[in-house]
What we know:
Mean pLDDT: 94
Number of strands: 13
Shape: globular
Helix content: 25-40%
Low-confidence stretches: none
Distance between the termini: 14 Å
Strand content: 15-25%
Structural class: alpha/beta
Largest sheet: 7 strands, parallel
Radius of gyration: 21 Å
Number of helices: 13
Amino acid sequence: MNAVQRVVVRVDASIEMGMGHLVRCLSLARALADNGASVCFLLRGHAAGLARLIEDGGHSVRLLADPDRRPDAPAADGTAHAHWLPTSWQRDAEQTLEAIDRIGPIDWLIVDHYALDARWERIQRKGAPRILAIDDLADRDHDCDILLDQNLVLNMERRYRGRLPQTCRSLLGPSFALLRPEFAEQRKALMERSGRVGRILVCYGGSDPGNETAKALSAIKSLSLPWLAVDAAIGLSNPHTESISAVCREMPLSELHHGADNMAELMARADLAIGAGGVMSWERCCLGLPTIAVHIADNQIGALTALASSGAVAYLGSAFSVAADQMAETIRSMLDDPARVRAMGEAARALVDGLGTSRVLEAMRSLDSI
């Protein structure tokens, strides 16, 4: 890239937060590195277990020290997700600025964190010439040069009205989805989908705290279809590995993928997916994969509602209110209706082309040339 040489990314991940924020930041970091930039990730100390994942991608990691004791309650002036930080946003801002000072001059700061807003970003202006804020919620103000919201949401062009500086450039919608390059590569090689379902991919993201994976597998198992193949993909932080493994052992054509790094391949070979919202929605769309979806966090509702309206998913509502027998009934209806399944895949594929990361890089490059 023209002037982007040093980039800092402030992001966190956990069972509660999920892995989606980190995954999309890693996708952008990979593209930045491919264009000659060095990228350093700043994570809270509680996310230290993820450092290896980041370092394996060729990036550096610095940990922000957590306090010995978490505050009894978030400050009254905090964001709706203030509890995602083990300290105050002010202290996080100080630690981030100190880390940037130790790193040396940077070109961009990327922040992807629901607990941080314009007040935090304003402080970072002392060390960051340019700020890219990644958001999904539109529930707080930002002081940034680029605002990226890759979600498909009704009236998305009005969501951030009054919340951004006048000079901020907004990148809105799934055409800017931050996907790894293997999704665009698999898309090019993808065979036309017939709508017939012989293989199902079950994946609820990196953490799946409610063990929706086991519920979906039980629903498939209850159909008693010995010819139906199943891939179950879970993250390394999934706390329910044993129970999921037990269900898989009872299904002869099922395979458990623990910490899979070939999700694009698994999605390309599947005929139907079962999962939640978040980053994986756009990965599935890129590969035209029809999906039975539930939300496992409230911030997924808007995008899944819009995807359902576009015909790309069968959205059942909250995961916690969907029983295994309801899931089984929905799966059965999809197996019996190849035309519907094929139409869903075509609707999904039309939304995401897998080139969103390059568009974000071009936006960053255009600002640096000013």
